[in-house]
Amino acid sequence: MIQVGLNHFLVVSTALFALGILGIVTRKNAVMVLMGIELILNSANINFIAFAKFGNFGFQGQAMALFVIILAAAEAAIALAIVLNIYKTFSTVNVDEIDTLKD
Amino acid sequence: MNVYDIIFYLFAAITILSAFFVVTTRNIVYSAYYLLFTFFGVAGIYVLLGADFIAMVQLIVYVGGILILLLFGVMLTNRITSVEIRSGSIHVVPATIGVALFAGILLASMWNTEWKSVDTAAPAATTQNLGFLLIHQYTLVFELLGILLLIALIGAASMARK
Fold first, then answer.
1. ipTM of this complex > 0.95?
2. Cβ neighbourhood burial of A66 (10 Å; 0-12, 13-18, 19+)
3. pTM, entire model
């Protein structure tokens, strides 16, 4: 068996990214779409840290991963506030039924 | 195959399997719980990559914060009569084909690229170096992110109150 190296981590992050896109595209519920976005952000973070370790970039990659986590927290809070407003307006959060911007 | 490899395969399996269940389970609450295992697996992978501080931040922010927010989102946007909160999927077959093609392209380009791969030993103190970086090279980014978090907090509170 091959020694675990950079490519192994990249395969994991590719799988997470593909599953995240699958979740965003196929699921109806807006909260599920948010979960897909979180999966994609995690896969990007794995890439940042893996390249920082194996590309010998010091701590730059880890700092970027920290920033991504902070942005993900802000994004989740804002997105859930928007989803709550959508639920108040349309009484549903299924993204395929919400097709008006303004009533 | 040494211990490092075995632990890597373990965490990779946890991460990918639970991410698969997140996407495919029909019950949203179960999806949120599978997401918990995905985040734990990713934190383990961070530790294997020598980023212990990021792994702890991942556990605190994602598991302790974002996952709870998502669960609240699920509970506030469904008329809860039982634990069964179901949500359907649309366009599953074409989306799966498209995503599989996309992942194939990504993997092919990954294998055909000669990545620079230096095997460096993990440094002992990542927290100290990371903190040094944050107050030296990334001071402006750090301050801006603080302001952004404050704005996001106020914005989310005022939007949800309407």
1. no
2. buried
3. 0.91
